[in-house]
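Q: A reviewer asked whether we had any structural model of the full assembly, not just the individual parts. We don't, so I'm hoping you can provide one. Inputs are below.
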Amino acid sequence: MPVFQPPAPPDFRPDCELCREAGGTLVFQAARWRVIRAQDASFPAFYRVVWRAHVAEWSDLSLAGQAGLMGVVGAVERVLRDALAPTKINLASLGNVVPHLHWHVIARFDWDSHFPAPVWAAPAREVVPAPVVRLRTPLPELDTRVARAVAALAPAA
Amino acid sequence: MPVFQPPAPPDFRPDCELCREAGGTLVFQAARWRVIRAQDASFPAFYRVVWRAHVAEWSDLSLAGQAGLMGVVGAVERVLRDALAPTKINLASLGNVVPHLHWHVIARFDWDSHFPAPVWAAPAREVVPAPVVRLRTPLPELDTRVARAVAALAPAA
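A: Here is a predicted structure for the entire assembly that you could use as a starting point for your response.
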């Protein structure tokens, strides 16, 4: 199991939950970023790529930092596509509530509770049986595949 | 005024509105992408960077294509930050309804109708006077600044 490594001052903000905590199931920790899985019953294949230092906006990173971070986002996206064959991938960096740079990478399915609306909109339907049992790849295996894919990027990013 | 250039076959899908139409106010047209401004009264500083060819997912692009596209997204973000001093920038590539690769770049303000929720959530308040008159930079000037910033990237992207 990877261990969450909070940023050190001056990159650490004590009032920021993504500085203090992993923010979900920690899948992989690199020097400058980590990958977590959000624990969302409606969207079980919902990962986040979190920049380690407290930075608000994507354009606060250098171009090299942006490229490294997006490489990680792309690797997670690719695993979700290969492992789950989702209807669509959703990517987003919002941070209105927690302004600590993080990318959402979400596998969406035409049967999910909100499709085709964004996950932040009102739900359109109840999903039975539970979404997690509908995934063609079990979550522990998915986490392992995500971790393996992003580990290959860790030295460079 | 830039002119919308639809993709040619086989990159064109007749049933896709982002293949057939600009999709908003056309701000800049490059060979491989365009920048449009969504005409959204609640979020006047809402731009989209649209890949010209019909491609569904960000990871369908080559790494060079991804880097070029994200460079444009970053340039738009930087102009919005410099010109408007928004509370937050929101970036997203969803495409559940129109699966033609496009990035949303949205300047958010703590006074806007949905803040801090995403623009796709339920509104939290009515905004009077209208959002457009609250921007510190008028929209025509903002469009010009966005166009100038992304034009510098057009040959390489």
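A: Points you may want to mention in the reply: Strands of chain B lie at 25-29, 33-37, 46-51, 88-93, 102-108. Residues 2 and 105 of chain B are 20 Å apart (CA to CA).
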